[in-house]
Write a structure and sequence with these properties.
The structure holds three protein chains of three kinds.
Chain A lengths: L17 H25 L14 H23 L11 H5 L1
Chain B lengths: L3 H27 L9 H7 L6 H14 L5 H11 L5 H10 L5 H8 L4 H37 L7 H20 L10 H29 L3 H10 L9 H17 L1 H9 L5 H19 L1 H11 L9 H8 L3 H42 L8 H30 L5 H12 L3 H9 L5 H23 L8 H6 L7 E2 L2 E2 L7 H23 L4 H11 L1 H4 L13 H12 L1 H14 L11 H15 L1 H12 L6 H76 L5 H32 L7 E5 H14 L7 E4 L7 E5 H18 L6 E8 L3 E8 L6 H4 L20 H11 L3 E4 L7 E7 L4
Helix pairs in contact in B: 1-9, 2-9, 2-13, 3-14, 3-16, 4-11, 4-13, 6-7, 7-8, 7-16, 7-17, 7-18, 7-20, 8-16, 8-17, 9-13, 9-14, 9-16, 10-14, 11-12, 11-18, 12-16, 14-15, 15-16, 16-17, 18-20, 19-22, 20-22, 25-26, 27-28, 28-29, 29-30, 30-34, 31-32, 32-34
Chain C lengths: L3 E5 L3 H13 L3 E5 L5 H8 L3 E5 L7 H9 L9 E5 L4 H10 L3 E4 L4 H13 L1
Parallel strand pairs in C: 1-2, 1-3, 3-4, 4-5
Helix pairs in contact in C: 2-3, 3-4
The chains are: A mainly alpha, B mainly alpha, C alpha/beta.
Chain lengths: 96, 892, 122
């Protein structure tokens, strides 16, 4: 995905305002969240199924739901500042 | 005990409520009051059609059988939602900028608007969704059965009748609200609102049952957890393959299910809603799945051995005497089923009517095709309604044929695997520009075929569509083609086996064929539009401010509007923005104004595309390009017309220029004539005056001198007279006052006389005459004296001007029926081309050389010949000066 | 031996008339009747006065005079120009070419004589 900011035609400043910078890092975070989620939810693949070392279902349940809640919370936190702003500088953030 | 009738009454009330909700929403939307319909939460709730009756009932059943495996069905979509920035955002943007109406439309649009692909996806979707609809019918029927059993044990319900009524009711609702408007963007506010309500109902129902189970039966959270651990599901027993595979499958299905695409992309009102849904929908799914395992565990404990775990949601409350809760739960399941069926029917009917019925109709009914828009509209509506009814009927058919025996979740997963076949093509389409139509077709067909063979057909059970022998030993005994052990890989879970082979071979074929094939221009264009959608589009209609460069706009506007108009416009706009003296800010308003101004000059589509280029955020769709092409065609036609006109003009201009040159030459000649006539008059006068003074003043001149001078005076006086005669002659001829003295006579005689007269004056050099006296023997009826005058002029001109050493004048005569042509050709250097068209004008003289004439001779000749009904022209291309006289044999 | 006059004129009758008038007054009159080589003739004979017609075959009087004025000033070579075209434009052209006297045909014999005399005296 091309998320580079677009200022006019083919030129953009090398350094951007603090606000814009923050926004871009949030976009990075938004991209990382599902990867982290996938990783965490893949952990059960490693759990042993041998009777003597099996993970109790209640603990599995708590783990899966815990990750779930965390993901929802992070997604919520990220989504808030990513709301579109009318200022031109932020246009790329929403559009690109 | 709730009676069945009461239950039906509740159902009808509920359905009536949905009708009211949908109706109110539709009316609000129609009146433009859409604000409350556009809450992000409505969007989020509408996504809940993912949670169908299958998940409502089946999840508990699945949990009762396989423990935590049921969670994967929710985890996959949760990851997709949380990762909205990756895929969904792009899909939604593409859907908006390309006006996508369905997933089939997306795929077809991406691959060069290929209808074949659309048909493939549609068929795949219909085949994949039909069992799913059957599943919904089955689950509702099942839930009725539960109540019937409870109310009246032993009495069995007629399954098929329930399912049929249900199918008919759903068809009615869908037809009424799903085909109300035929908007380009295919949004159905009423339906969306109704399914949002249903989302709330089913969530509340399941959570109510869950709360009842955990706190009412299980004795609190801790106790319930202990019960879980103590139960047969107490340990993590999920197969790793299924855990990962189902998570992937559910994520894929979430993106590819036609109904999900409908609510996620097509019904999306605002990209920004996705932002809210990114966390709110995972939360919804989490809540939906929160109590599933407790209900399953408690159900297993409470219900007798062999009870269907798929109905625990109903049977557990019923067994505890919580009838109201059971009814609520029933409504939840009912909602899940109806909302899914409604949206799926809308999505599929859109696909079927747009990609199958309409193309066929347009082909079958040519001539009256797309030109009559109202008619088409009617046909589309009808096609949609028929499709909805057809799809629901198919679902019902599947249900009654399959007998509704198989466990719910199995049908669901088979269906998921089917629609997931679209995933490689879809993702390839939006992320990889190299994906081609042929590749997509090949990949889809491969995936579809493998799915049919390994998953769909065997799902009917041995003996239905596929004999048990094939399942056990492979077709024709080819063991490596066994549906559940392709290529000899045995022991895999059949679902995973089907998923693995279908998706991987699908992807492989898709990529390989794409690489090997070459896309058409439209495909490449669409590919670029899709993959780089964020560079080509903006979120909202209109231009995004700030990115455009005022200078660039100014330059472009100047080119199109002209410098003055463009500057006036920019100055006006700048003043309007309170920025007098500077360039205006490229605000959206200004850009729109500018676009309108430009559109007046170059057409709307071109203007849009041009501004788009500069602003850099244009959604240039294929329609835009088509419009540009149209305009260009019009402009080309116009300009070719202009070209023809301008050619005409330039011809006229050329003629004018010629005429002007001629006039200029004539004017110069006129000046020259005044000088000339002055010269011609003064020169003889000078001699006359000088010699008469000499004669007067000089005494004693010798008599021979006196005689000489007197004769000079005499000659010059005659010269003057002749000049004045010529002038008068010409004047008379020009004014048409001449009286022709018509007589019959021989041309030879006329020429004879003319030659005699012309050579009589031997002061003018010698010229040899060549004549053809035989040819000259023609009798003419004309003014012989005037004609003679012409010949004298031509002969003496030749004598005067022919510059050859041995001057020769040849007079050729040809006679036709009633005309005679005389050519007078000498052997001199002739007359220069630039002089040829003025020699017949008055007072023109070819050279300054002293020739004795005033330049009136040829002018007089032309006047005479014209009077005689003929014409005289210079005859170019001869060796010397040549004149052609064409005369009628007789004047009328 | 009187002063020499060179007359460049193409009308034989006018040549005859002017020659008669001037030679009777004691001038030696040379004549030449075309414009082509007029300049060379003038340079070769170096007359005291040049009488120049305007409309000459080959080269006009103005052209001849302009060329002569390249090397000979009005003092070195007084020129009387005769023209049968009596327009004011012709007078201007003549003056621009560096003529000493300008006279329109037909002229009175006495005028020509007076003009030639005045050119030599000056």
């Amino acid at each position: 995905m091309n998320d580079g900011p677009r200022f006019g035609i083919g030129r953009g400043p090398l350094f951007v305002e603090r606000q814009t910078y923050r926004r871009r890092r949030l976009m990075d975070a938004a991209r990382v969240v599902p990867v982290v989620g996938l990783f965490l939810w893949s952990i059960p693949l490693l759990w042993s199924k041998l009777p003597e070392a099996a993970v109790p279902t209640s603990r599995a349940l708590l783990f899966v739901f815990g990750v779930w809640v965390a993901l929802i919370a992070v997604a919520f936190l990220i989504s808030l500042p990513l709301r579109p702003v009318d200022k031109p500088e932020d246009q790329p953030g929403r559009n690109s | 005990m709730t009676t069945l009738n009461a239950l039906i009454a509740v159902c009808l009330c509920y359905v009536a409520l949905l009708f009211v909700v949908a109706f109110v929403a539709e009316r609000s939307a129609a009146q433009g009051r859409v604000a409350w319909l556009r809450y992000p939460m409505v969007y989020t709730l509408s996504l809940s059609i993912y949670c169908t009756a299958w998940t409502f009932y089946g999840a508990v059943g699945n949990a009762a059988r396989s423990g935590l495996e049921y969670l994967t069905i929710y985890l996959g979509p949760s990851l997709v939602m949380v990762g909205w920035w990756w895929i969904l955002r792009k899909l939604v943007r593409i859907g908006r900028s390309q006006r996508i109406t369905s997933i089939a439309d997306l795929i077809s649009s991406r691959f060069g608007k290929s209808n074949l692909l659309a048909i493939c996806v549609t068929i795949l979707a219909v085949v994949g969704t039909t069992p799913y609809i059957a599943l919904q019918l089955q689950s509702v029927t099942l839930s009725f059965e539960v109540f019937a059993e409870a109310a009246n044990p032993g009495q069995s319900l007629t399954h098929n009748a329930t399912a049929l009524y249900l199918a008919m009711g759903l068809a009615l609702f869908t037809v009424v609200f799903g085909t109300r408007n035929l908007d380009a963007n295919e949004r159905h506010h009423g339906v969306v609102m109704a399914i949002a309500v249903e989302a709330v109902v089913k969530l509340l129902a399941l959570m109510a049952v869950g709360v009842f189970v955990v706190w009412g039966v299980g004795g609190g959270v801790a106790d319930t957890l202990q019960r879980i651990d103590a139960s047969g599901l107490g340990e993590w027993q999920v197969s790793g393959g299924r855990w990962a595979g189902l998570m992937f499958l559910s994520a894929a299905a979430f993106l590819c299910l036609p109904r999900m695409f409908q609510v996620l992309v097509v019904e999306n009102d605002d990209e920004n809603h996705l932002r809210t849904a990114s966390w709110a929908f995972p939360m919804y799914m989490m809540l939906m799945s929160l109590f599933v395992l407790p209900i399953a565990v408690v159900g297993l404990e409470l219900m007798p051995e062999g009870a269907n775990p798929d109905t625990f949601v109903l049977t557990v409350p019923l067994s505890q005497g919580a009838d109201v809760l059971a009814v609520l739960s029933f409504l939840g399941g009912f909602s899940s089923a109806t909302s899914m069926v409604i949206v799926a029917a809308i999505a599929l009917s859109t696909m079927v009517s747009n990609h199958i019925v309409m193309p066929i109709w347009l082909r079958v009914a040519p001539g009256e095709g797309a030109s009559v828009s109202g008619d088409v509209r009617h046909v589309v509506m009808l096609a949609r309604r028929m499709s909805i009814a057809g799809i629901l009927f198919l679902g019902y058919l599947y249900y009654s044929l399959s007998g509704g025996g198989t466990a719910l979740s199995t049908i669901g997963l088979v269906s998921f695997t089917g629609v997931a076949q679209v995933l490689p093509v879809m993702l390839g389409g939006i992320f990889w520009r190299g994906a081609t139509r042929v590749g997509a077709l090949a990949g889809l067909c491969t995936g579809f075929a493998i799915w049919l063979y390994t998953s769909f057909l065997p799902s009917f059970g041995p003996g239905h569509f596929m004999s048990g022998d094939i399942v056990a030993f492979g077709p024709l005994g080819l063991g490596w083609l066994r549906p559940h052990a392709l290529f000899g890989i045995e022991g895999m879970d059949p679902l995973l086996h089907a998923l693995l082979w279908s998706i991987s071979l699908n992807t492989l074929v898709f990529i390989a064929v794409s690489i090997a094939s070459f896309p058409s221009p439209l495909e490449r264009l669409q590919g670029a539009q899709f993959v780089n959608v964020f560079q080509h589009s903006v979120g909202a209609r209109g231009w995004s401010a700030g990115v455009a460069q005022s200078e660039d706009l100014m330059i472009m506007a100047q080119r199109i509007l002209g410098a003055r108009e463009a500057q006036a416009l920019f100055t006006r706009e700048a003043a309007g923005q309170g920025r007098g003296g500077q360039l205006p800010d490229p605000s959206p308003d200004f850009l729109q104004t500018l676009e309108r101004e430009l559109a007046g000059s170059v057409g709307a589509a071109t203007a849009h595309a041009m501004i788009g280029q500069i602003v850099g955020g244009a959604a240039v769709s294929v329609e835009d390009l088509m419009a540009v092409a149209d305009e260009t065609a019009q402009m080309m036609e116009y300009s070719s017309r202009l070209e023809a006109q301008s050619e005409e003009l330039s011809q006229t201009a050329g003629k004018l220029r010629e005429a002007n040159e001629k006039l200029t030459r004539l004017s110069v000649q006129k000046d020259a004539f005044l000088s000339q006539i002055s010269h011609e008059l003064r020169t003889p006068m000078t001699s006359i005056r000088a010699f008469s003074e000499i004669l007067r003043d000089s005494d004693g001149l010798p008599p021979e001198d006196q005689t000489k001078y007197a004769s000079i005076i005499h000659d010059e006086a005659i010269r003057l007279t002749r000049l004045l005669d010529d002038l008068l002659d010409l004047s008379v001829l020009e004014n048409g006052q001449v009286n022709l003295n018509l007589r019959r006579g021989s041309l030879r005689d006329v020429l004879e006389r003319a030659v005699a007269a012309a050579v009589a004056d031997d002061s003018q050099g010698v010229i040899e005459l060549r004549r053809d006296t035989v040819a000259e023997d023609i009798t003419l009826y004309t003014d012989l004296d005037r004609l003679s005058q012409v010949f004298i002029n031509l002969i003496s001109n030749a004598r005067k001007y022919c510059d050859a050493v041995d001057a020769v004048l040849e007079i050729r005569v040809q006679s036709g029926n009633d005309t005679v042509i005389l050519d007078f050709i000498d052997n001199g250097t002739g007359i220069a081309p630039e002089a040829q068209d003025v020699i017949f004008e008055k007072f023109s003289r070819v050279s300054d050389q002293k020739a004795g004439g005033a330049g009136l001779g040829l002018a007089i000749c032309r006047q005479i010949v014209t009077r005689l009904g003929g014409k005289i022209d210079y005859l170019p291309g001869q060796q010397g000066a040549a004149f052609r006289v064409v005369l009628p044999m007789a004047i009328d | 031996m009187g002063k020499t006059v060179l007359l460049i004129e193409d009308e034989p009758n006018i040549i005859e008339a002017i020659s008669f008038i001037l030679s009777r007054d004691g001038w030696t009159v040379d004549t030449h009747s075309n414009g082509h080589d007029a300049v060379e003739v003038v340079m070769g004979r170096r007359p005291d006065v040049l009488i120049l017609d305007v409309m000459l075959p080959g080269k006009s009087g103005y052209e001849i005079l302009s060329e002569l004025r390249g090397s000979l000033s009005p003092k070195d070579l007084p020129v009387l120009m005769l023209t049968a075209r009596g327009q004011s434009k012709d007078r201007e052209l003549a003056e621009r070419s560096g003529v000493n006297r300008f006279m329109t045909k037909p002229f009175a014999n006495a005028e020509v004589l007076e003009a030639v005399r005045s050119l030599v005296v000056a």
